[in-house]
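Entry 14. Ran structure prediction on the chain below.
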Amino acid sequence: MYTASILKKELEASKGNRKLDIRIDNVQLVNVFTREIYPASIGIYNQKIVSVGRVAADADMLIDGGGAYAVPGLIDSHIHIETTLLTPEALGEVIIPWGTTTLCVDAMEIANVAGIEGLLAMIKDSEKLPFRLLLEIPSRVPTAPGLETTGGVLGVEEVTQLLALDEAVSLGELDPSKVLGMKEEYLEKVLASLDRRKICNGHAIGLGVDDLNIYAAGHLSDDHESVYYEELLERLRLGIVPLIREGSSERNVDTLVPGIVEHHIPTDNMMFCTDDKHVNDIYKEGHISYNVKRSIELGMDPVEAIQMATINAARHFRLEDRIGSIAPGRFADILLIDDLHTMKPKMVLKDGRIVADEKGARPVPEKEYPAALFDTVHIGADFSAEKFRLVSGGTRAKCRVIRMIKDQIINQEVLEWMNVKNGEIPADVSRDILKLAVVERYGKNGRVSTALVQGFGLKRGALAASVSHDHHNIVVVGTNDEDMAVCVEKIQELHGGFVSAVDGHVADALALPLGGLMSTLPAKTVMKRMDEMNAAVAAMGCDMKAPFMSLSFISLPTVPELGLTDFGLIDVLGHRIIDMIVETEE
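Output, structure tokens:
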């Protein structure tokens, strides 16, 4: 509890009448309020910055910054932790050395699998983490009600309960169909957030100006789905804050930042996020630090890029009095960086505690999770390769095919004539048109739906995942039904994971038993295994940088143009189930 007595001690420390906990000397302060860089010392007491400038007070710990830049801790304004494949405890080991000290987490993945209990289990003891975990309360669990099967449901009552948590900073991303369709349940969730003076996060993928007007009128404050500069500008003009995303399969910095720089657009209302980024990419490239570094390489002023990763995000979430700057009264989230063009910290402090230095991150104690979260994968008892058959009459069938777009999660609907053999449509490897299927994994109905996809490049075999946004049923793509079935059965055996199979045998597998989403292994082990998994898939003909990430998004029923759930092929913008076969020829 923050009392007047504690505040008095902080003021005494600021005045120099009480010994500081830490004093950092000899730094170049990056001031995100004035865009200045100047020499300073920083005084820290009781987790907070109490003085900035030339601090003369003594301290229990003196840190010589060695002339390094002092930068506020970086903020990821929208992330799904589960997609990193790590628990929050393991994730800290990877992001903290890159300087991310705050995550704004939409925990919709674990909520779709295990409801409110799963979500609360994941954030339990978050105060022990080396980063600040803030919650964007999931607004759409399930994402597409009536069009998919999920393990959990968060209605208005559950969302209202979660918005009351101290960690809650917003209502999580709400897709257009809920707002444009004026669905009362979701409007009530918006109002529950506004009643608590919390913002509402958006997911305005594919919207034109007319629909964006309606979306903004529905109090959706931001959007992380801009792919082109023109989309970003349309959102800015309507007061929808763009979150510039750089994930594993959706890379937007290189398409958006050049437009911002070229047109000299003010960045005060822009920020960065990762949304979904595998641990291997974070470790190799960086986290929010990569967004900043790459933006600088593309011509953005370094301090401006740092503002987007710090104070802009803090202001957006109405937290600027707590985080986002190096100023008195704020929590002491501070990075010491020798070169702003590399954005690699040599020291990271969170709440005035050193959580990483040049040797790496401080270890985080493991946490025990409920046993029920390790038992979430239950496919139908009658499952077999026969479930993947695409039955058709005639000798040819014109089919809707999901065509993937490189480095993006959006896709195109294309029409392709497929040969019919023995009453069914097989994959056509020569044209890279493969089978894609979703297998219900919660033991509720055993449904399997199958469609066609183009863009994976597999020449043989199949791969599958129990991570498939946002329903997280099993998604599998393959050149033949038998290998697809092998993958699915192995995922059930592992209680969740990634699997590849060739010639009727498992080629490689990574278990993700926590909710079928996350590994309980150390980060470095998961990274090594993911490199091996990707190498196995590459040997099957797929040249994607992140094949399992791409697979996890291809079934999404809220990303245009087509999605696939256990209910069938989804027309995303029409929000309805459609037939894959358009016509047949005898």
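The longest strand covers residues 20-31. Will compare against last week's run tomorrow.
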